[in-house]
Every structure is written in structure tokens, then in C-alpha cells.
Amino acid sequence: MKEIKAVIQPAMLEKVLRALHAMKGLPGCTVSHVHGYQRAGGEPEEFLRHEERAKLEIVVKDSDAKKVAEAIMKSARTGSPGDGKIFIIDCEEVVSIRTGKRGDAAV
After folding, report:
1. What's the Cα-to-Cα distance from 20 to each of 33, 39, 75, 87, 97, rounded to whole Å?
2. What CATH topology corresponds to 2-106?
3. From 4's CA, which of 18, 21, 41, 93 has a CA 20 to 30 Å away?
């Protein structure tokens, strides 16, 4: 399993969620509104550029990770700096609290 974390511009959230919702078998995702900073040009005095972002967290089967990342990238891209990042991380195990199922069955 893979955990996909994506940090995107808040204005693109609805478009990204529509793209994810259209994917068959996607279990769902968690959305948080976060604040962060990024390098705004490379000079130390330009380092702090505080901005609000939307963060999506999704756990998917290994076979779905690239498709999900591609859908996020296509729908979140504006071509401007600050479009965001996608992180794909190995997820050792998932456990459903309600059912006790583990692994792919819990996703």
C-alpha cells in the first residue's frame, strides 16, 4: 500500500477532489487546511513566503498510486510557482478501527 500526500493550492482543491471522486474504487481521502512556507527566490531574506495550502492524504493499493498521483498532478497544475508537491510513501499497514480488517481489505 502507498500513502499519497499532496499539498496544493486551495483554489485547486475542488477540481482535484472531482478528479479523485471520478476514479473507480478510490476509498476516499482526508483533507486538511494547512499553512506553510516556501523559498521565494533563493535569497535568505526571501525564504519566508507564508501561504495557506490544502493537504490531501490518501492510502491506496500499490497498483493505484501512480494513477492517483497523475490525477492530482493534472488537476492541480496551473503552471505557476507554488502549485504544490505530491509525496508517495510506503505504508506498512492499515487497520480499520470499526471492522478490524487489515491491509488492502481495510483500504
Report:
1. 18, 29, 9, 16, 24
2. Alpha-Beta Plaits (3.30.70)
3. 41
| AA letter at 95 | V
Cell numbers for 74, please give them. Answer: 493534472
Kindly state the average pLDDT of the residues 22-43: 83
Question: 63-96, pLDDT tens digit by residue?
Answer: 999 999 999 999 999 998 889 999 999 999 999 9
**81, three cell numbers:** 510557482
Domain range list for the chain: 2-106
Q: Beta-carbon neighbour count of residue 64 at 10 Å?
A: 21
* Residue 55: Cβ within 10 Å count: 17
Q: Which three cell numbers stand for residue 33?
A: 487546511
Bridge partners, residue 37, by sequence = 50
| Helix H or strand E encompassing 84 | strand 84-90
Q: Which residues pair with 32 in a beta bridge?
A: 55
